[in-house]
Structure formats: C-alpha cells, structure tokens
C-alpha cells in the first residue's frame, strides 16, 4: 500500500508513548508524522502580579514539571525516529496554519473534558471537516468515556461513587502494542520550530531563590515510579484510603503518581491494569472505594460529573452545589495561603504545598476544611484557586470536585465532622517532625506545645527561640469558638437551601450574610463583656 498521507498528532495532555491511541492512529498508513505541541499563552504567559512566581494559571513547580515532561516526550520520540515540534502561540491559529502548510490529511488528538479544550476542539474539528481532514479524537485520559456513562444514566451524571461504579462496568484495556518506530517528520517549511524552553526562557523573572518540587516530570519517571510502587505487592494489595500518614514526607505514604496522571505521562488504563495484575497474584486485597484502583475510579467519577455539570467550577448557577454565603475575608485567606494562621499543622502543610507542589490527600483535607467550613468560613473557590496554582497535580475536574466535597457544598454533607487543626496531625506525628521540617522556626519547641505553641509559657518560648506573636503568629481564630460558629452558619445555609428547594437567589444569600454579620457583632460584644467581668 502506497503511503502518501501526512498525519499530525497534537499533544496537550497525554504526554506519553505507551497506550496512546491518538499517536497510534496517526502513525498508521502515514508517510510523514508531525508530533506537535503548542505552548499556549493562556497557560504560560508570565504574570508579575500573581501571589507566586509563574504564569496567571500555574506556579513554577507545575510549569517546571510540565517542561520536564515535554523534554522526556521529545527524547522518547527521538528514540523512535521522530521528534517533538514545539510552537508558541494561540493553539487554534497555529494548528490551522500547520494543517494547511503541511497538507495534513489526518489530525489526531486526545479527547479532553475541560471546557477550555472543548471550545478549542470544536473550532479545530469544524475547520478540519470543511478542509476534508480526518479527525480522530479518542478517549484515553480516563478509564471510561464520560459521555457514555452520562448517556446510560438518562443524560445526567451520577452524583454518587456507587451509582457511578454500577454504570461504569469494567474499563477498556490499554493498547497492547507500542510502536518501535514512527514515520519520519516531513518537510516543516520556514516556521520557527522551538526547543522545549527552560523556565528562564519563558520569562518568569528571578527564580534563583525558589525551592523546587522533588518530583521530576515525564513518562520515563512515571513508569519508573509505577514499577517501584508495584514491586511492594503487599502494600498495593492492602492500600486503603483514607488511611495513610499525611505527615510522612521523607517517604510519602502514597504513590505520588497523581501529577503523572494529570499530564498523561502515565496512562490511567495501564496503571489500572498493572494493579489488577498484582491483585490476581495475592490472596486478598482491598476494594473500591478505598483500594488503589478505587482511587483511579474516583478520578473518573469526578471527570464524569464535571463533564455533565454546567458551571462545575463555581458555586453560582451550579445545580449540584449548595449556595452558601461564605465570608469575603481576604485577610484570613492570605494568612492561610501564606502559612500564617498560627496553627502549625495547617501552616506546615501550606509550606509543603508551596515548596513541593504536592501534599498527602489527608493534609489537603485538613487545610481545605480549615479554610472553609471548619474555621475561617472563606469561599471554597478562593482555596481552589490557590491549589490550582500551586499543585503540580492540579486537575480541573478533581480540584473543583474535592473543594466542593471538603467544604460540604456537594457530594458530602456531614458538616459537623471537622478536621481539628490540632489533634488530627498529632494523631500521626506526636513529636511534630513534619512541623519542625517545614516550619523550622518551631524546630526547638517541645513536643507538648508543637501543635499549640501559643499555650507554651513565655520561658519555654524563649528557650525555643520562638516568641508567639513575634517569631511565629498567634492563631488567627480560636478553633473551639470558630468551628462552633461555622457549624451554626452551615446549618442555617443548609436550611435556606432546603427551604428554597435549591433555588437560592442572590438576595437570599445577601440576607443570610447580613444575619451572620449581625450575629458575629453580637457574639463579640457578649464575649468582650464576659472578659470584663472576669477581669
């Protein structure tokens, strides 16, 4: 068969060779194959006013991880006789120009559920259709096709994990064959093809003082980490979320494969199959939702709900989200974001987030609960934005889903169950090694006070060279009082949602917010009077 056609594979996520149906389809029956990545200003444009170095959407840790993933992809393509063609600009404009110039007959790219890519993909597909170009856009970032599951559920996304599992069934297996060679890149014309840029070349300013994540991006690293995790068959078989130690940092208590799944350096189908293979060779193993494969199914659950829910990433006009009049308190938000809440467990986690771009899921639960329904009553969208910027594994569907869950805005409604910013961490790490590592200012504080340093006598604080209020902040709120107040507010907000049958208007929220403010003023007055009487 004569091979005359040129194909273009457009990488966005799916930064891998293994189990890559778009790449496999592009390779077949093609004389030339153009592997393209477009550096998109939407994600990479430097933002000098953001609260941390990076672009308007991502901090340096995730950008660095992403660039390492591109370098690794290019290296793996070169081993197959090809290379990654990197361009910079608005993706649709760049792609249409390349499709015309290179006379491409087949365009392949992985299906993406995110609204941003959905809108780009529609424009590209419309152009390709009018130009007679074949388009192949397979589902390979998830175990299942979210559209299929929604269709099985009468056009609605399933809103519980168990109902999702019943509809989902068994995932398709990964591709068994991996290419040993790829068709060569054709003539590229006079376009400027870039090398994968460095952090410095992208123009994010002076980064010499930045501490970078210990996790390196790329498919090679992902497969190595997967092999290491699966070697411990007993650990894989007995993995049970939400157990695990959130304070373990020298050797994290999870696989840390989430960033590799986020960028598609690791196929979730391949990961799932590898875990299933371990299960076949052990006497017993845990099951979903707590098992290791259960975590991959949770990922698909969030992808499916997000795909079928308009305005999934906001409270307003989001049908599955409780309408709650959160406080608009930037002072508390900044104290939380900058690790200055005065609660060492919370602050250490936020330092780890900034330095590593990653923390254990239970650590994420602690700080998300604290910011929202637990203590500070700040809007979950504000916390979501901080995670979205700083996490190397930040994923649109999962990040929004988890913040709604942890703020008791959707999926989980037991708002009386709160993660204590004092006792929860102490349960795992009574000596405070995690706190001492990420908050060295507290490294000499005796273990009796490490979780509540404000209770230490001044003599102890002096000896530890950490005076509370000078070297480390006083608590921004009194947890015992604040958590009680948050529970009351949540109860009233839930009652409003019940009364309005979910159709809460802006003026209803404003009215309840005014009531909360009046209640707070009254409460402060009565506390102040009590203190006067005591004094």
Automatic annotation (TrEMBL):
Cofactor or coenzyme needed: FAD
EC id: 4.1.99.13
GO molecular function: deoxyribodipyrimidine photo-lyase activity; DNA (6-4) photolyase activity; DNA binding; FAD binding
GO CC terms in record: cytoplasm; nucleus
Photolyase/cryptochrome alpha/beta domain mapped to chain residues: 5-143
Organism lineage: Eukaryota, Viridiplantae, Streptophyta, Embryophyta, Tracheophyta
Region (Disordered): 516-535
Co-factor note (free text): Binds 1 FAD per subunit.
Protein name: (6-4)DNA photolyase
GO biological process per UniProt: circadian regulation of gene expression; entrainment of circadian clock by photoperiod; nucleobase-containing compound metabolic process
Reactions this protein catalyses: (6-4) photoproduct (in DNA) = 2 pyrimidine residues (in DNA)
Keywords: FAD, Flavoprotein, Nucleotide-binding
């Amino acid at each position: 068969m004569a091979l005359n056609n040129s194909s273009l594979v457009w990488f966005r996520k799916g930064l891998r060779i293994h189990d890559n149906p778009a790449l496999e389809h592009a390779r077949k029956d093609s004389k030339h194959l153009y592997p393209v990545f477009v550096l998109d200003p939407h994600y990479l444009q430097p933002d000098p006013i953001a609260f941390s170095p990076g672009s308007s959407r991502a901090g340096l840790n995730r950008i660095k991880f992403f660039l390492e993933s591109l370098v690794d992809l290019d290296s793996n393509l070169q081993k197959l006789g090809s290379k990654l063609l990197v361009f910079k600009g608005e993706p649709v404009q760049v792609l249409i120009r390349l499709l015309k110039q290179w006379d491409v007959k087949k365009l392949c790219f992985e299906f993406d559920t995110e609204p941003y890519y959905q809108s780009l993909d529609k424009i590209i597909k419309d152009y390709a259709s009018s130009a007679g170009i074949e388009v192949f856009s397979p589902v390979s970032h998830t175990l299942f096709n979210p559209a299929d599951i929604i269709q099985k559920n009468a056009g609605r996304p399933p809103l519980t994990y168990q109902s999702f599992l019943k509809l989902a069934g068994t995932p398709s297996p990964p591709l068994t064959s991996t290419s040993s060679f790829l068709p060569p890149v054709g003539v590229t014309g006079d376009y400027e093809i870039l090398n994968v840029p460095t952090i410095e070349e992208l123009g994010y300013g002076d980064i010499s003082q930045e501490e970078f994540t210990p996790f390196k991006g790329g498919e090679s690293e992902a497969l190595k980490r997967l092999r290491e995790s699966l070697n411990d068959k007993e650990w894989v078989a007995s993995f049970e979320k939400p157990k695990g130690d959130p304070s373990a940092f020298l050797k994290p208590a999870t696989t840390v494969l989430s960033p590799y799944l986020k960028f598609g350096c690791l196929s979730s189908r391949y990961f799932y199959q590898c875990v299933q293979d371990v299960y076949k060779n052990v006497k017993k193993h845990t099951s979903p939702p707590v098992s290791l494969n259960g975590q991959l199914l949770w990922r698909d659950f969030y992808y499916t709900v997000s795909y079928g829910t308009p305005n999934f990433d906001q409270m307003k006009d989001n049908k599955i989200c409780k309408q709650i009049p959160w406080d608009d308190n930037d002072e508390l938000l900044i104290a939380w974001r900058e690790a200055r809440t005065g609660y060492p467990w919370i602050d250490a986690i936020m330092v780890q987030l900034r330095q590593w771009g990653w923390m254990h899921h239970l650590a994420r639960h602690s700080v998300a609960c604290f910011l929202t329904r637990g203590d500070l009553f700040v809007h979950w969208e504000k916390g979501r934005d901080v995670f979205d910027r700083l996490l190397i594994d930040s994923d649109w569907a999962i990040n929004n889903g988890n913040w709604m869950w942890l703020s008791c805005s959707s999926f989980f409604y037991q708002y009386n169950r709160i993660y204590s910013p004092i006792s929860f961490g102490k349960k795992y790490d009574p000596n405070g090694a995690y706190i001492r590592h990420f908050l060295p200012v507290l490294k000499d504080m005796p273990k009796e006070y490490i979780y509540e340093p404000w209770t230490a006598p001044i003599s102890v604080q002096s000896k530890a060279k950490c005076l509370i209020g000078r070297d480390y902040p006083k608590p921004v709120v009194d947890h015992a009082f604040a958590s009680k107040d948050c529970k009351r507010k949540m109860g009233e907000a839930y009652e409003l949602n019940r009364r309005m049958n979910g159709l809460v208007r802006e003026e209803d929220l404003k009215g309840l917010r005014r009531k909360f403010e009046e209640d707070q003023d009254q409460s402060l007055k009565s506390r102040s009077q009590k203190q006067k009487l005591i004094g």
